[in-house]
Amino acid sequence: MKSPGLRLFAFAYLIFLYAPIVLLPIFAFNSGTIIAFPLKGFTLHWFDQLFSNATLGQALRNSLIIAVSTAIFATTLGIFAARASTRYRFPGKPGIMGLIMLPLVLPEIIVAVSLLIVLLGIGVPLSIFTVILGHVLAATPYAIAVLNAAFSSLDKSLEEAAYDLGETKWSTFRLITLPLVLPGIVSSMLMAFTISLDEFIIAFFLAGEQVTLPTYIFSQLRFPKQIPMIMALGTCLVIASIVLLTIAEYARRRGIAKTGAKDTGGFL
Amino acid sequence: MTIKTASDRPTMIEFREVQKYYGDYHALRGISAEIRAGEFFSLLGPSGCGKTTLLRTIAGFEDISSGAVLIDGKDMSNVPANKRPTNMVFQSYAIFPHLTVAENVGFGLRRDPRSSAEKARAVEEALELVGLKGYGPRAAHAMSGGQRQRVALARALILKPKVLLLDEPMSALDKKIREQMQVELIKLQRELGITFVLVTHDQEEALVMSDRIAVMFDGEIAQLADPETLYRHPNSRRVANFIGVMNFLPARVTAESDSHVALEVPGLGPLEVTPDQVAAQTSGGEATVGFRPETLTLLYEGQTASDREAPGVIDEVVYYGDMTYYDIRLDGVSAPVRISMRNVFGRPVLDVGSRIRVAWSPGALVLFR
Ligand SMILES: Nc1ncnc2c1ncn2[C@@H]1O[C@H](COP(=O)(O)OP(=O)(O)OP(=O)(O)O)[C@@H](O)[C@H]1O
Ligand SMILES: [Mg+2]
């Protein structure tokens, strides 16, 4: 970064990116109810309010269930698809892979509305389960993209060698393939988890009576009194994300160090 | 020089009219051959000729379209790779990067009912066999190229396979280590008496290591013979060109009988060859005589040929230290022929443009017709 212009640009960009996040904790601990400077005083009141809010607790629980399920299902489906696309040749492969990846570019609102119509049409009651369905649909292409990279960097002859040495197809997968694509699986789960956790549109359309974190936050924005509590919630979420990403990145680096693989960047 | 395999050894691998299609692409075009027990056998050919494909039909990684592969007399059509008495050393070595050296080598013993102490001893023995004693606890991914190959060898040999398959195992090594590994592999094969099938596109490697070689082009075996026969009596110009260097001159058949073929060759004059010098190439048309660079000798001042000689002019000189290659334009021939001469102390390397005489002998020629 030699040119001062570029340096300035990078600096401005970082501020643009992180200033709102820095503001979150500032106002979360501010005793004033209006989100504006000057700050009034220090308080833990908003956190108190946050932790004693039963609806919010329900929303958080729902969101976690949805996000964890989405991470597991999307990654499992992603493993099958990535393996098929990197290992096997079959007729119509480019078309099929294209269709699977389509939700990546489809506007989410279209996906949400069409899912809603289909689900209502076949008479499935709206619940957490239908949100999971929608989120799996939305997150799977991302999972495939991450897992494709992991699977295609895996030398095919490693699996053949294990099979040649007497293992079955399944035990080969368990003993060789799985450990070697594990960093990719971790990345994929993490990505699907975060996509699901903050997804709004699909959850808004498909949750029925249930609340998720994003739909709850949205519903509270109408009440200015609630905004400092939302700030406190945001602060908690930022901390949780940082912890989660740190753990995941640590796991990924350890995996790479253990196999001596080339570090291809990964998530962070 | 390799000790030649006795031809009465039993057959270990038999290919019967093996055909392989990849979609429309005809990768193996009716391979029929036998590999004998305890033999060091090589599949040699240019890139894309189907060597790896053929090797993989032995291992069971490639289903064949028709024909049969037999190992030790048993048809392998319904035997999957993990149940075949073969093990493979892969071109990339396929070392499991998340395991230690010992875990890699002992991988094949996972289903072995022996106690873990006995298995550990077997692993240690296998490592010793390939010269990696004491390397067991190391991380496999941290080994050098040559060491990885040894690990791959030990891992493949620990199950005591009837056949060891090697797909270009030396191509990733630099020249020094490659030559060292060639010698070690030959020794290992003699010691163990296991049938080795080696895929290579390096003709020198095949000649050095093999009891017999199958030269492949375009999904077919062009010639299957021991190294000396391949070198001296190639059955086609293509094989001759692929193995070492061969000079070719156009020839005209003037007379033919059961005991000899009479030829007229520009640059060499009239000559006769015996029927065993005639390659079984059945292309018809133009006849050609071929001869290796070392079957010709440059004559220095005062030397005379023991057999026949031909005059010419030196066109090009390539000095190699122990050898010198001369490209010579024989009188009456437009294309130069290559001669290799061992450099002897006190004998000068000749200059481009010198008029010289070349000694040759009709017995060293091969006639392609
Ligand atoms: N899975 C496959 N699908 C389609 N074609 C293939 C497949 N595997 C090999 N081929 C083709 O079959 C031919 C023979 O391949 P093979 O790998 O046996 O060649 P090779 O003699 O080992 O060459 P090289 O020295 O380059 O390894 C090649 O033209 C290759 O493109
Ligand atoms: Mg090959």
From TrEMBL, chain A:
Record flagged with keyword Cell membrane: yes
Compartment(s): Cell membrane
Membrane spanning stretches: 12-39, 59-84, 96-122, 128-154, 175-207, 227-248
UniProt-listed InterPro entries: Bact_Polyamine_Transport, MetI-like, MetI-like_sf
Bilayer topology: Multi-pass membrane protein
Highest taxon of source: Bacteria
GO biological process terms on file: transmembrane transport
GO cellular component, one term: plasma membrane
Key words, A-Z: Cell membrane, Membrane, Transmembrane, Transmembrane helix, Transport
Positions of the ABC transmembrane type-1 domain: 60-248
Keyword match Membrane: yes
Protein family: Belongs to the binding-protein-dependent transport system permease family. CysTW subfamily.
Protein name, as recorded: ABC transporter permease
Species, as recorded: Paenirhodobacter populi
Taxon lineage: Bacteria, Pseudomonadati, Pseudomonadota, Alphaproteobacteria, Rhodobacterales
